[in-house]
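thought: user wants a sequence for this fold. calling inverse folding tool.
action: design(structure=
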């Protein structure tokens, strides 16, 4: 049975709604929707969590498909039924969810966003992505580097680029002030604090970050996030010579308050698309240190809006930490320039408008 809809509808299909860059973007696109009414389909679930609460609060319907780990034909069949009954004018897939949707798209207007370099997005089932692109699904990368990786891997010349965005207005004012937030999580009031907001996953390379955090007297490190590397990160912190200066905070629902309370935001990833945590840090006006991987060189202008370091180089990362920890004036200058860059290029309203133009395009060409 087709659901009647008076305005155009977009169905976002995501593997899950756990905390991760792609899932956060799905949530933000849905909550900041413009002309298209959003519906979210998750292969896994149902679950509860921060993103689910945000979608519910915004009145966005969530459709769960009860996927099991590994290939799951039944979840694919259930998704096929959803595609037939949802009344969606456009299907927008994310990450490996395209493989589950591909057999059922059959000329439907559809867009697929790749959130990281294409060769890292999926290792099995690329033929399904090729099938979808051949049948009209429009490939989109979140940065020029990601888009080029799609062209290289799939031989496509129709790849679009839409930069990730964040809700700059909502990030402006924290609910808890800097000193109160620090006190609540055990951070010293006057210390320089470096924060990393990232899933505890091997690709984020927290071990490198911890290696780089040395010889920084009075500086503290706040690690926000959770994931499969939690035990390994916890053990590494326990053995760290400066373990009393490292704070493992777990998943946070108060990232806005965290960003306002710290001084430097860092990443040490092996690969990235355009990480939303860096865009949020820029929007709040924080000095950023990040590796020159994926889309980060297109986001950060080294020396003006942040510092880029070679990937895998703990010594250079340590030197960047040292330089910024000792120079409050430079931190402020980088943060102020980063905020202006975020306002100009990375507001989520621009992201929504860009995707809606693509939705219009694929509907006309279908």
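)
observation: tool returned 366 residues.
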């Amino acid at each position: 049975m087709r659901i009647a809809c008076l305005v155009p509808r977009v169905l976002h299909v995501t593997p899950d709604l756990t905390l991760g860059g792609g899932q956060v973007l799905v949530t933000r696109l849905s909550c900041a929707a413009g002309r298209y009414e959003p519906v979210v389909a998750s292969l896994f679930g149902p679950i509860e969590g921060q993103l689910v609460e945000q979608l519910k609060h915004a009145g966005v319907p969530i459709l769960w498909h009860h996927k099991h780990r590994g290939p799951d034909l039944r979840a694919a069949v259930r998704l096929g039924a959803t595609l037939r009954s949802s009344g969606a004018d456009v299907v927008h897939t994310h990450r490996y969810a395209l493989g589950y949707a591909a057999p059922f798209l059959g000329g439907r207007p559809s867009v697929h966003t790749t959130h990281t370099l294409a060769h890292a997005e999926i290792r099995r089932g690329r033929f399904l992505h090729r099938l979808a692109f051949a049948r009209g699904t429009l490939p989109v990368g979140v940065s020029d580097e990601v888009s080029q990786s799609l062209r290289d891997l799939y031989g496509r010349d129709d790849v679009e680029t839409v930069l990730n965005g964040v809700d700059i207005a909502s990030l402006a004012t924290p609910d808890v002030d800097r000193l109160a937030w620090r006190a609540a999580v055990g951070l010293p009031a006057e210390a320089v604090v470096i924060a990393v907001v990232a899933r505890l996953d091997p690709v984020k390379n927290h071990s490198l970050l911890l290696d780089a955090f040395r010889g920084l007297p009075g500086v503290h490190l706040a690690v926000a996030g959770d994931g499969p590397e939690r035990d390994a990160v916890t053990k590494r912190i326990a053995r760290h010579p400066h373990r009393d200066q490292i704070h493992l905070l777990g998943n946070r629902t108060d990232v806005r308050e965290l960003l306002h309370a710290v001084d430097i935001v860092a990443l040490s990833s092996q690969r990235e698309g355009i990480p939303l945590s860096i865009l949020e840090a820029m929007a709040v006006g924080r000095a950023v240190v990040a590796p020159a991987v994926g889309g980060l060189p297109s986001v950060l202008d080294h020396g003006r809006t942040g510092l880029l370091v070679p990937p895998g180089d703990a010594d250079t990362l340590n030197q960047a930490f040292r330089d910024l920890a000792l120079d409050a004036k430079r931190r402020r200058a980088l943060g102020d320039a980063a905020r202006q860059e975020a306002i100009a290029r990375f507001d989520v309203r621009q992201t929504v408008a860009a995707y809606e133009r693509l939705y219009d395009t694929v509907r006309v060409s279908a």
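thought: summarizing for user.
answer: Here is the designed sequence. The mean pLDDT is 95.
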